[in-house]
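Attaching the record inline, Q. Sequence:
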Amino acid sequence: IVGIKGFVFKTRTGETTVHAEEFEFLTKTLRPIPIPKEVENEEGEKVVYDAFADKELRYRQRYVDLIVNPEVRDTFRKRTKLVQTMRNFMNERGYLEVETPILQPVYGGASARPFVTHHNSLDMDLYLRIANELY
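Structure, as predicted:
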């Protein structure tokens, strides 16, 4: 839990947000983060001990993997930069970015068996999108 000092304001789009001027941690974590230990061996190479290295655990706890492994953070940064560059390239040429629904009330577009989920608030079944090209 964090405490934030600042002031509340509305963005240009009308969203209420906080302009944080100070923040502090109010509680400790329940479990310590598995911080890797790096040492140099005789050849001058870095050796990592006690790293968050179990692949299964890393996939299940992506949030910890992002904190502990700089390579994972770097991958996310590279992906962000790539997507941003592609968007800028397309925007400069007048293309529009269109979002298509992922959950649909009716499935179609392929012979694959659809993934079904239930929307509690609407009390209806929805289907995971199979084919983007229908939009």
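The chain has two domains: 2-92, 103-134. Residues 3 and 45 are 41 Å apart (CA to CA).

More tomorrow.
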